[in-house]
Amino acid sequence: MTNAAGQAHVEPKKPFMIVWGFLLAFTAIEVVLAYQQLELKVMLVMLMTLSIVKAALIISYFMHLRYERPSLVWTLMPALIFVIVMMFVVFPDSVRLYHMRPK
To answer: 2 forms bridges with which residues in the sheet?
Structure first.
């Protein structure tokens, strides 16, 4: 990527490695949570929260949205809000289906 002066834009690797470490830690937490005997609703809320945090980290750092103009970020925010709302619309149905399965 080049800027207006024709020089290459070089980003430091340290922030990306830190974010990668956090993503690994969040994934490990999700795996541990999957094997815990928690109430279904509590576990799903925790897993969905961790997934949203992970998605935000990936979007902002690895897709370089953190370095973009605010207008581009605000253009994508309605899609993010829509996805989050749809997750919570479908969430009660998943609990209903869980209780309907044969024991």
So the answer is: 8
Write the CB contacts of 63 (distance below 8 Å, at least 6 apart in sequence).
none
Taking a C-beta distance cutoff of 8 angstroms, is the pair 65, 72 a contact? yes
- What pLDDT does 3 receive? 55
Task: Count the helices and strands in the chain (H runs, E runs).
Answer: 3, 0
Tokens of 90: 């479908």
Q: What single-letter amino acid sits at 19? A: V
Contact indicator for 40, 98 with CB cutoff of 8 Å: yes
Q: What are the DSSP calls for 24-60, one per residue?
A: HHHHHHHHHHHTS---HHHHHHHHHHHHHHHHHHIII
pLDDT, tens digit, 9 for 90 and up, residues 27-38: 999 999 989 999
> Domains of the chain: which residue ranges?
14-100
Contacts of 61 (CB under 8 A, 6+ apart): 15, 16, 19
Rounded Cα–Cα distance for residues 68 and 19 (Å): 18
On whether the CB atoms of residues 64 and 17 are closer than 8 A, the answer is no
